[in-house]
Design a protein that fits this description.
The complex is a heterotrimer. Chain A is mostly helical. Chain A is about 75% helix and about 5% strand. Chain A has a single domain, classed as Orthogonal Bundle (MetI-like fold). In chain A, strands 1-2 form a two-stranded antiparallel sheet. Chain C contains eight helices and 20 strands. The chains are: A mainly alpha, B mainly alpha, C alpha+beta.
């Protein structure tokens, strides 16, 4: 082993150690647990093969509610945040009086913990005392019991996530916009391109690399959402808004079946890793992304 | 060729009309983002009886804050969250800096393997390993303690921030390090005395992001702590799920939790933008 | 008719004056070059003509029509940028067609215009490629194609050759001249390179710090520079400047400095009369100095010491110490062997002397 290799390894040794102990080992433990009969009150730990996996994959709750919820949430949240974030970035890219003020407001959600955001918005949608229902009543409409039905609860959760993550998209897309060279846009002005045509044929293609990276990162994170769902609805009503992470958590710590929870988590892990790799491949072929 | 014909709705609006539309949109955006926070602060300033008609009440009080800050668990949670955030940031920076540097300066099977490892683990849902971490930390006797939280956080930070670090180091000209090595520095010396100082703007930006991320983190804190080490985000979420919850106290706690984040963001915004020249 | 007329045009950015009081009368189909060091306001002026910058004062008229308040797209102009500004995500064909499509020209006309432009510039085989796949020279031709496809009244060029290497630049200069013959259009060309200015322009506008120094044909600028700046800027290697004191004698002026003195007949240089008792800056082009003694009384002579020789193959350049100053001599016979330190005698025709009152060093 030459000196260069030794240096390389030395650089990553502390990180590798932490990673191994606190990520690899737990994942392996979890994977191991998923193949055994391992409940928290009666850890027999006998090998049961794929029984837990089959149980999860056959679970109606999982197939009909959790999976659609998670993917639906992922697509809706990313799509909405992207479009809104792009619109805001385009706005902030122009100079106008008070721009710094708007920018500060837009950055506000970035420092708010997801848990806090969930609490704030949950309070706003409180069916007896929340401001949203009060506004509805003021407009002469009937108040809605937001957190007792599946789709309205879902709406509140989605709203929270979009509130939290639109600024992230806006910030990164703004940085992207500002790094674009001005000359093609000047040429487009001379070429009589309307605002829309400039956006569609020039801005958008040039922003594509940044957008794709954002979409991949955010999709992966959206899939793993836990904080806001737990805080707003706990997965309710009656487990109707459970996402992936919640399902695994519930199995492990409420049904006390660590094995099933781990199996669910492993299935989720496989799904998202495959998804991420696929997305990364499409990325690299579709657009040149610097590693 | 003749000049262009008109191009649609927005061009048809007089410049004044466009400006008004723009201004209205800008205001709407500000309101949408600020409103929940504003409402939270307002709620926290209402006395217990008035909280149920926040929009109609006229009384203001700071008793809620007083009540909340006298609760032992809240004070301990505040302290713990602060310590964990700060310690995790400091330790993570060191570990991710070397990791990112390695990815930036070297090519070949080892960096590729490390990169792939990090990328894969970045994608794995937390749930998959947090649950077993519950056991691992118990086995190592660090469950419900500082180290029990710090080390898993550092593991996550490695995956999150290594490639941002790589980006920073990519932007620093390696010729300076070669010059240093020719001048007698070891590789370590070149890293420590040439590359790291040049990366300080990026490191500052990352430190701020890292601190904020850890301060706001929930899932790890939920699973890896119990009664010994209360963490602010968990304490708040648990308040929410209690029956007969008192929203005025809840909002006061949330506002208190927001203050450090606000300070760090306001103070650090300049550094983040400077350091993260994407 | 596509004359471009600038009247009292000036531009300020806050408190900084970028361009002061420009008056230019560019005739139809004339090729005018704006040249000067960076920061002189040439690009700003061009961009004001294009409509990419607001005009702070004065008027700009294209084809007899004042365009101050017109958008770039309504001025019937086309522009070539320094880094081409091609639309990277469209094919060459779409790049050329973009401007026409925006103006809702029928597709058949577009196809004809694109085909014609591609033929003129010999880029037909490239029509379906992306800009990324083209070389620098090819991209520049596509940028030119974007100009001619719309048949505008004026072409504007913003340092289009600066990104090309020296050889390619020389080739593109020739191609630009050929293009001019096939598509004669009023053109305004900005560059910092005086060689480009001299070879391409019908007339040249020399600018410095926002002010026009001189407007004239290349030969006018070379032979009769209006001030020291223009004299030093035009011509390569650049002009020598020697400061001398002027005193009057019987029927001569004596121009002298340590190590150099010569006399000029009062009758032939009456302008020197106003400089008697003061100093004046004498400009001599390196190419006008000949080695040897003066052959007639219309030449002046001086002696100097060779410091450095530069062999160029077809000529030599000398750096010669003259008193306490240094001058350069060009067009020296390449076969002459002159060692540093050797004494030489040189002569220059008195008619080739330029006189400037600006004694300060120019930038």
């Amino acid at each position: 082993m030459n000196e260069k290799t030794r240096f390389m390894l030395a650089l990553i040794t502390p990180a590798a150690l932490v990673l191994v102990l606190f990520q690899v080992v737990p994942i392996l433990t979890g994977a191991n647990a998923s193949f055994r009969d391992w409940t928290l009150h009666d850890p027999k730990r006998t090998w049961v093969g794929l029984a837990n996996y089959i149980h999860v994959l056959r679970d109606q709750e999982f197939l009909e509610i959790v999976l659609p919820n998670t993917f639906g949430f992922m697509f809706a949240s990313v799509a909405l945040s992207l479009v809104l974030g792009l619109a805001i970035a385009l706005m902030l890219n122009k100079h106008f009086p008070g721009r710094w003020l708007v920018q500060s407001f837009v950055l506000l959600p970035l420092m708010v913990a997801p848990v806090i955001a969930a609490i704030m918005i949950r309070w706003m949608f409180n069916d007896q005392f929340g401001v949203v229902n009060a506004a509805l009543e003021g407009l002469g409409l009937a108040p809605i019991s937001w957190l007792t039905q599946r789709w309205t609860t879902f709406f509140v959760i989605l709203l929270t996530d979009v509130w939290l993550w639109t600024p992230w998209f806006a910030l990164i897309l703004l940085a992207g916009l500002q790094s674009l060279p001005p000359e093609p846009f000047e040429a487009a002005r001379i070429d009589a391109a309307s605002a829309w045509r400039t956006f569609r044929h020039i801005t958008l293609p040039m922003l594509r690399p940044v957008m794709v990276v954002c979409i991949v990162i955010r999709s992966i994170d959206a899939f793993r959402t836990f904080d806001i769902v737990w805080t707003i609805s706990g997965g309710g009503p009656a487990r109707a808004t459970e996402l992936f992470s919640l399902y695994a958590y519930v199995e492990s710590f409420q049904f006390l079946n660590l094995a099933r929870g781990s199996a669910a988590a492993v299935i989720g892990a496989i799904i998202i890793v495959v998804f991420a790799l696929l997305l990364y491949r499409i990325l690299n072929r579709f657009v040149e992304v610097s590693k | 060729m003749a000049p262009a014909r008109s191009e649609g709705f927005f061009a048809a609006l007089a410049p004044r009309g466009k400006a008004v539309l723009f201004a209205l949109t800008a205001i709407a955006i500000c309101l949408l983002f600020a409103f929940p926070v504003f409402w939270l602060v307002l709620t926290s300033l209402r006395p217990g009886t008035g909280v149920y008609y926040v929009h109609r009440g006229t009384e203001f009080t700071i008793d809620n804050f007083h009540d909340v800050l006298t609760q032992e668990i809240v004070v301990r949670a505040l302290f713990n969250s602060f310590m964990i955030s700060t310690l995790a940031t400091v330790l993570s920076l060191g570990v991710t800096a070397t990791s990112g540097y390695m990815l930036s300066r070297f090519k070949g099977p080892i960096p590729n393997a490390w990169f792939s490892l990090i990328y894969i683990f970045r994608c794995v849902p937390y749930v998959a390993w947090v649950l077993p971490l519950y056991f691992v930390t118990q086995q190592l006797h660090i469950f419900d303690s500082y180290w029990g939280l710090l080390l898993p956080h550092i593991a996550v930070h490695i995956c999150f921030f290594s490639w941002i670090m790589k980006g920073f180091f990519d932007g620093i000209d390696p010729s300076m390090e070669y010059a240093a090595m020719i001048d007698g520095c070891s590789r370590w010396g070149a890293f420590w005395r040439v590359a790291m100082p040049a990366a300080i703007p990026g490191l500052t930006a990352l430190a701020i992001l890292c601190w904020l991320y850890t301060w706001n983190e929930f899932l790890f804190a939920l699973i890896l702590t119990a009664h010994e080490t209360p963490i602010l985000t968990v304490v708040m979420a648990q308040f929410v799920h209690e029956l007969g919850m008192e929203w005025h106290l809840m909002s006061a706690t949330a506002v208190i939790a927001l203050v450090p984040a606000l300070i760090v963001t306001l103070f650090g915004q300049r550094y983040v933008i400077r350091g993260l020249r994407i | 008719m596509a004359a471009v007329v600038l009247t009292n045009v000036h531009k300020v950015y806050g408190h900084v004056v970028a361009v002061t009081d420009i008056n230019l009368d560019i005739k139809d189909r004339e090729f005018v070059v704006l040249v000067g060091p960076s920061g002189c306001g040439k690009s700003t002026t061009l961009r004001m003509i294009a409509g990419l910058e607001e005009i702070s004062g004065g008027t700009i008229a294209i084809g007899g029509r004042v365009v101050n308040h017109l958008q770039p797209k309504d001025r019937d102009i086309a522009m070539v940028f320094q880094n081409y500004a091609l639309y990277q995500h469209m094919s060459v064909r779409d790049n050329l067609a973009f401007g026409l499509r925006n103006r809702r020209v029928p597709e058949t006309e577009i196809a004809a215009a694109v085909g014609r432009a591609a033929r003129i510039l010999s880029i037909e085989p490239l029509l379906d490629r992306r800009p990324r796949q083209l070389s620098g020279g090819q991209q520049q031709r596509v940028a030119l194609g974007r100009c001619i496809v719309r048949n505008p009244k004026v072409f504007l060029f913003d340092e289009p050759l600066s990104n090309l290497d020296a050889q390619l630049r020389a080739q593109m200069r020739l191609e630009l001249k050929e293009l001019r013959q096939r598509v004669p259009t009023t053109s305004i060309f900005v560059t910092h390179d005086q060689t480009e200015a001299m070879t391409l322009g019908d007339r040249i506008v020399v600018m410095k710090e926002g002010v026009v120094q001189q407007v004239g044909t290349p030969l006018e600028l070379y032979r009769k520079p209006a001030n020291r700046f223009v004299a030093s800027f035009i011509g390569s290697p650049s002009m020598n400047f020697i400061t001398v004191n002027v005193t009057a004698e019987a029927d001569h002026f004596l121009l002298a400095r340590p190590g150099l003195q010569f006399r000029l007949a009062t009758a032939r240089f009456p302008d020197l009369g106003s400089r008697v008792g003061r100093s004046v800056c004498v400009g001599i082009r390196p190419q006008h100095i000949r080695l040897g003694t003066p052959v007639n009384d219309k030449q002046i002579g001086f002696k100097g010491t060779v410091m450095v020789t530069e062999q160029l193959g077809d000529e030599q350049l000398l750096a010669v110490r003259l008193g306490d100053g240094e001058i350069r001599i060009a067009s020296v016979d390449p076969d002459l062997t002159l060692s540093p330190g050797s004494q030489i005698e040189a002569a220059v025709a008195a008619d080739n002397l330029h006189f400037f009152d600006d004694l300060k060093e120019t930038q």
